[in-house]
Design brief:
Blueprint (H helix, E strand, L loop, with lengths): L2 E15 L3 E4 L5 E9 L1 E4 L6 E3 L3 E5 L5 E4 L25 E4 L4 E14 L3 E2 L8 E4 L6 H14 L4 H18 L18 H12 L7 H7 L4 H12 L3 H19 L4 H7 L5 H12 L3 H14 L8 E6 L1
Parallel strand pairs: 1-8
Antiparallel strand pairs: 1-9, 1-12, 2-7, 3-6, 3-9, 4-5, 4-7, 6-11, 9-10
Helix pairs in contact: 1-2, 4-5, 6-7, 6-9
GO molecular function: DNA-binding transcription factor activity; sequence-specific DNA binding
InterPro entries: AraC_lig, AraC_XylS_family_regulators, Homeodomain-like_sf, HTH_AraC, Tscrpt_reg_AraC-type_HTH
Pfam families: Cupin_6, HTH_18
């Protein structure tokens, strides 16, 4: 794995008293829920309940509503998981309490996006939740608690600090791909297939290069047929389709930055023909490159100064 880009969206500490239930709305981003203290359950639609104990980490796919329950028995509350149009949204409050009395279940809950390179959202295509239980010596509870405290303090730099801390949690989870026996690791098979990871890194770092299936398979020491099979298994699409998506994402970023001409952007995206680049870009973004740039500039001018609840962190992993 060469780079991990984490867009930290919002974070809340959720505290539930005994017997309390918290409906969590399904949103556009994945959500992460880390049990800091206590015990309870997560209920998603008609799926098997998820047991929460200290150090349990759960990542819920985008658009999936859920219910968190501070109960000792896995009895789903009425209307569990049916809150797509309502319910609590992580980050809408720094600390959200439910029920009366002392909390018996405390979690750190956040919405986020995590990209591998410039085009692959690691969690956007999840079909089922990721569930993994860590140990006390992993110290993820301290990392998540510190992230919550940073945002609650509202000190300068609290948002970027919390984003960096969340990235540590995700990296710890992704390392589990190499040792965990849970079925969710199959979604991240690329992380344990170094040749395929190197091929993707080559695409992402040099999108303008004249990549072909032959050149990529040769670069990572695989036969053409083995490379095609392993790449498609890891990404769910062919190398050339993913390369086109990488190039379009790169071009969109360059256009939004407004530092190069459209012809230069096309070259940087691996296109020698402006007309070919324009046709492909229009298929992906629904507008010509010049129109996309103008719209991005208008949006940038109209945007307020970013809050510390939404920051982006990009580092070499």
């Amino acid at each position: 794995m060469t780079t991990l880009d984490v867009t930290f969206v919002r974070l809340s500490e959720c505290a539930l008293a005994a017997g309390a239930h918290l409906a969590v709305a399904g949103g556009a981003a994945s959500t992460i829920h880390y049990c800091l203290r206590g015990a309870g359950f997560i209920f998603l639609d008609d799926e098997t309940h998820i047991r929460l104990t200290p150090h349990t980490l759960v990542i819920v796919p985008p658009g999936r509503a859920m219910t968190i329950a501070a109960t000792e028995h896995p009895t789903a509350p009425r209307n569990s998981g049916k809150h797509n149009n309502g319910g609590f949204t992580p980050g809408s409050l720094k600390r959200h309490t439910v029920g009366n009395g002392e909390p018996t279940l405390v979690l750190a809950c956040a919405s986020f996006r995590a990209n591998y390179g410039p085009a692959l959202d690691l969690f956007a295509s999840l079909a089922t939740p990721v569930v993994e239980t860590f140990d006390a010596h992993d110290q993820l509870d301290q990392v998540m608690a510190y992230a919550v405290a940073e945002l609650a303090a509202q000190d300068v730099g609290g948002g970027p600090m919390s984003a960096a801390l969340l990235k540590l949690v995700l990296l710890a989870l992704l390392r589990r791909c190499l040792v965990s026996t849970n079925t969710w690791v199959e979604r991240f098979s690329i992380l344990s297939d170094p040749p395929i990871a190197r091929a993707f890194a080559e695409m992402a770092s040099r999108p303008s290069a004249p990549h072909t299936v032959q050149s990529l398979s040769h670069a990572v020491g695989l036969s053409r047929s083995a490379f095609m099979a392993r790449f498609s298994a890891a990404f769910g699409e062919s190398p050339m389709l993913l390369l086109r998506r990488v190039r379009m994402r790169h071009a969109a970023d360059l256009l939004a930055a407004n530092a190069l001409s459209v012809d230069q952007v096309a070259l940087n995206a691996g296109y020698r023909s402006r007309s070919s680049f324009t046709r492909t870009f229009r298929r992906y973004y629904g507008s010509d490159p010049s129109e996309y740039r103008a719209r991005a500039q208008r949006a940038s001018s109209a945007s307020a100064v970013p809050t510390e609840d939404a920051v982006e962190v990009s580092e070499a992993a």
